[in-house]
Write a structure and sequence with these properties.
This protein is 39% helix and 16% strand. The longest helix is centred in the last third of the chain and has 14 residues. By secondary structure, it is α/β, with parallel strands linked by helices. The mean pLDDT is 98. The chain is globular and about 45 Å long. The structure holds 2-phosphoglycolic acid (PGA). 2-phosphoglycolic acid binds next to strand 8.
């Protein structure tokens, strides 16, 4: 049994006092969920250190939402993976579809970012997923295969790499794939990461896209789903923790 990971991606929300309060509330309520799953919050980078301080001594880990592929240098506005680690992160999300779309991030860039994360001792959460047009065209599994082939760096293993399957059309829309569709995608991902991720049978595969307290139980029970990447529903401690409570134990 793979221990589930429930990760909150706050995106560009809760970047100040609101985020510190949210972190404190998640930390205060985490004990029950943490008995059967790992918990992670990924706040905006400006409060990552404050959130890490607020969660010190709690079972909740902290992660970044992106990192640069270089270790340092003239990259105005960017953050190196080691900076995130120094601020208290142990994870970083790379290749989220919003970054792939908003910043034209390619698989090759995502791969380089994941390698940089590993170099800084961070666990990389590599996001993949098809658009609605790709699903309608029957291309979902081929798209996932291509993203897996292109985005996973050398040296990836079940301890330093998590894959998040996030259908682009399910993010922030309230729509989710059926349990059968999630099962098909995750079985495919499990198969395709053989060779790319050492001990791939132990790697955590998260589902993400409109996970909420009402659908979490069903989605988290799907074969090869080892947790969730939660956006909107992670912005309230109660809903985030309720999702975590429903992770299989
Ligand atoms: P959502 O976002 O839960 O708001 O759909 C998930 C994500 O993009 O990670």
């Amino acid at each position: 049994m793979i221990r589930p990971l429930i990760a909150g991606n706050w995106k560009m929300n809760a970047g100040g006092a609101e985020g510190r309060a949210l972190a404190e509330a998640v930390g205060a309520g985490a004990a029950e969920a943490a008995s059967h799953c790992d918990l992670l919050v990924c706040p905006p980078a400006v409060i990552l250190a404050a959130v890490a301080d607020a969660l010190a001594g709690s079972p909740v880990a902290v992660g970044g939402q992106d990192c640069h592929e270089a270790a340092s240098g003239a990259h105005t506005g960017d953050l190196a993976a080691a900076m995130l680690a120094e601020a208290g992160a142990s994870f970083v999300i790379v290749g989220h579809s919003e970054r792939r779309a908003d910043h034209a991030e390619s698989d090759a860039l995502v791969r380089a970012k994941a390698a940089a994360a590993h170099g800084a001792g961070l666990i990389a959460i590599i996001c993949i997923g098809e658009t609605e047009a790709q699903r309608d065209a029957g291309e979902t599994l081929a798209v996932l295969s291509g993203q897996i082939a292109g985005s996973i760096p050398d040296g990836a293993n079940a301890a330093n790499t998590v894959i998040a399957y996030e259908p682009v059309w399910a993010i922030g829309t309230g729509r989710t794939p059926t349990a059968d569709e999630v099962a098909e995608a995750h079985a495919h991902i499990r198969e395709r990461i053989k060779g790319g991720i050492a001990r791939s049978e132990e790697a955590r595969l998260l589902y993400g896209g409109s996970v909420n307290p009402k659908n979490a139980g069903e989605l988290l029970a799907v074969a090869n789903v080892n947790g969730a990447l939660v956006g909107g529903a992670s912005l309230e401690a109660a809903s985030f923790l309720e999702i975590a409570r429903q992770a299989p134990s």
